[in-house]
Amino acid sequence: MRIKLVLLSTLLASCSYISSPVLSPYKMDIRQGNYITPEMREKLKLGMSKQQVRYVMGTPMVSDAFHGNRWDYIYSLEQRGEVVEKQRLTLYFEGDNLVRMDDGSQPVQAAPAIAQQPVMAPVVVTAPPQPVAKADPSADVLKSVQAWSAAWSAKNVNGYLAAYTPDYKPQGMSRKAWEKQRLERISKPKVIEVGLSEASASMQDDSHATVTFMQRYRSDSHHDEVGKTLRMVKLEGKWLIAEEQAGKAVKAKAQVNEPAGVSAQPLNANQQAVQDAVKRWADAWSARDADKYLASYADGFKPSGMSKVAWEKQRRERISKAHSIAVEVSDLGIKLRDDSHASATFKQVYRSDTHQDDTRKTLQLKKVGDVWLIVSEQAAK
Questions:
Q1: Under a CB-based contact definition with an 8 Å cutoff, are residues 84 and 78 in contact?
Q2: What's the pLDDT at 309?
Q3: CATH code reported for the domain at 137-250
Q4: Which of 105, 145, 154, 366 has its CA 20 to 30 A from that of 216?
Q5: For the domain with range 269-380, which CATH number is right: 3.20.20.10, 3.40.30.10, 3.10.450.50, 3.40.605.10?
Q6: Residues carrying CATH 3.30.1450, the chain
Q7: Cβ of 327: how many Cβ atoms within 10 Å?
Q8: What local confidence, expressed as pLDDT, does residue 226 receive?
Q9: Where do runs of H (alpha helix) occur along the chain?
C-alpha cells in the first residue's frame, strides 16, 4: 500500500511539471482605432470641410457629442500584452472648416524637479530692459493669403470673394461676370485642394504689399501648378487682393537673346513694346477673350493648312468651349530685324480643362501704326 502511494505522488508531480508550459495562454495582436498612413496625413489640409476630412481620414475613433468641433483619431497596437505603437491626431473645427491639427509633436513637458538647496538670502538682480519686438506686417499679409486659399479649398465662395477689394477688376471680363464664373468653378467640383509654397511678401508701405508664390490646384476634374503674384491693399484693417496675375510673374522681365558671353542689356522701346504685345496676346487667350486674342494677329496673317476665315472660326470655338484656359510664357527672347519687324521666341505652357501641352514657339511680328501684330506663328515640341 505504501509503495502505491509513493508511485501515485510521483506520477501527479510529473503531470503538473509537464502541463505547465502547455497551458500558458496565447495572446494575439490587438489593433484598436484609426491607423493613419503618411499618405492620409499628407492629404489633410487646413480649410477642409468635415465631409472632406471624413473622406480622407474616415470616421474618428472618438467624437464627443457635446464637443462636435473636436475629432480624435486614436490608434494602438498591442503585442503579447504590451502596447508597442501609439498614434494620436486631434482635429479642431470652426463651424464646418478644419482650423487646427495637433499630433503631439511638441508635447508640453513638466518642469524638472529642483533639488533642495540651503536657504540663503535672496539676491536681487536688475535685468537690462529688453527691446520690444516689432510686429512683422508681412506676416499679416501672408496670413490673409493663406485664409484666401483655405476658403477656396473649403469651397467657401463667400469667403473666397471677400478676399478681394470692392474695386477689383478681373482681366478680360466684368466683375459681375467674373464672380458668376468663380461661383460655378468653385461649387461644381466635389473636392478642391489649393496648396501654396515658396510664398514671400514684399512691403511697399504700411498699406500696400506684393505676394508671390507657387500655387498647386487640384480638383476631381482639373489640376495645375502655376506661379502667381497678388497685389495686396490694406482696407479697414484687412489685407485684400487688388490685383492678381497668373504665370511665373517673378520672371516678369524678359531677357533679350545675346551672343554667348555677353550680358543681357535693358530692353529698348521697341523690344519692350514687342514683349508687351506677346503678354497681351497670352493674357487674352488665358481670359478666353476671343476678340482680343484675334486682334493680336495682323490682317495678312496666313494660318497653316486653312483659310484665315476657317482658322478664326476654329479658334473661337476652341476658346469658348474650354471652361478654363491658362497660358504661361517664359524664357522669352526678342530679336529686332529693324524698327518695324521682330521675332519672339519662348516656351509656352498651355493648360485647359480638356488639354495640356508644352511647346517652343516663335512669333514673327510687324509694327502696324503703333501696334505690334503677329504675322506668322511656328510651334515645335
A1: yes
A2: 92
A3: 3.10.450.50
A4: 105
A5: 3.10.450.50
A6: 24-102
A7: 19
A8: 86
A9: 2-22, 38-43, 50-57, 137-153, 157-161, 175-187, 269-286, 290-294, 308-321
Question: What gap in Å lies between CA 267 and CA 345, rounded to an integer?
Answer: 15
* pLDDT of res. 196: 84
pLDDT per 10-residue tile (average), the chain, 381 residues: 59 52 58 76 86 80 65 78 79 88 58 43 49 64 89 90 92 86 89 85 88 87 85 92 73 38 60 92 91 93 90 92 89 91 93 87 92 92 66
**Dist CA 208 CA 239 (whole Å):** 9
d(CA 335, CA 266): 13
Q: What span, in angstroms and rounded, lies between the C-alpha atoms of 239 and 141? A: 6
Q: Which CATH class is domain 24-102?
A: alpha beta
Question: What per-residue confidence (pLDDT) applies to 24?
Answer: 55
- Sequence-distant (≥ 6) Cβ neighbours of residue 131 within 8 angstroms: none
| C-alpha distance from residue 220 to each of 33, 185, 192 (Å) | 29, 12, 7
Residue 186 grid coordinates: 468653385
Distance between CA 195 and CA 146 in Å, rounded? 9
The C-alpha cell that represents 172 in the structure block: 478680360
Tell how strand 223-235 and strand 238-246 pair up: antiparallel
pLDDT given for residue 67 in this prediction = 61
As a whole number of angstroms, the distance between CA 204 and CA 252 comes to: 18
Which residues are CB-neighbours of 86 under 8 A, at least 6 positions away? 75, 76, 77
Which of these, 320, 266, 317, 264, lies nearest to 289 by C-alpha position? Answer: 320
Between CA 59 and CA 51 the distance in angstroms is 10
